Amino acid sequence: MRFPHAQCVAVDIDPVLLTLGRGALGDMQGRLRWIEGDLRDAGWITQLGQEQVDVVLSTTALHWLPVESLIQLYGRLGQLIRPGGIVLNGDHFTFGPHMPTFAKVVKTMRERKEASAFSDGGLENWRTWWDALAREPGMAELFAERERRFAWREEEDIEPIAELHEVALRHAGFREVGVLWQNLDNRILMAVR
Q1: Residue 187, strand partner residues
Q2: Per-residue pLDDT tens digits for 9-43
Q3: Distance in angstroms (rounded) separating the CA atoms of residues 85 and 93
Q4: pTM of the prediction?
Q5: Cα three-residue angle 65-157-22, rounded to 5 degrees
Q6: Residues of the chain with pLDDT under 50
Q7: 42-53 burial by CB neighbour count: b if 16+ within 10 A, else e?
Q8: Are the beta carbons of 71 and 43 closer than 8 angstroms?
Q9: Rounded distance between C-alpha atoms, residue 12 and residue 65, angstroms
Q10: Using CA atoms, how far apart are residues 45 and 28, in angstroms rounded to an integer?
Q11: Cα separation of 109 and 183, whole Å?
Q12: What element of type H or E holds 27?
């Protein structure tokens, strides 16, 4: 192992994803803890059991947060992460209304790519994967709880644009913020404290 003494904490509010993660990874010989927490509420930080961490990694989670909650979360991360520590956020960062041509290109390219990979290739896509998982034995109760926990989210919610993430991270005290990798609107944003 590259970091044999590293300790990790996984935080999520989604009971389906928590169940999948725990089932797939367990506690990794005591190196991984699982916390059921809502990133919109500061309470998840107290569940960590430590005042500071070196790295925070998020993948396709923060786009769910309303703008106010996202800004507050980044402010908390600015205090939680040690100087020199980093945030890596891999997500779909939409192009804002000031970039309609970019948004159109992304939409067209994604539709073509999905048609080629899923429709033409007969592979399972995101939606069919989730639908199949919901039909698995014992999953109905977890999906019902998932729906209850995400009832606050409106289907039409506008996801924060990339520029907002960058500005909020800088405002939270991160000295370097930028895109580390990108494919259309799928990006990895890195912030160094």
Answers
A1: 91, 182
A2: 999 999 999 999 999 999 999 999 999 999 999 99
A3: 22
A4: 0.90
A5: 40
A6: none
A7: eebbeeeeeeeb
A8: no
A9: 13
A10: 21
A11: 11
A12: none
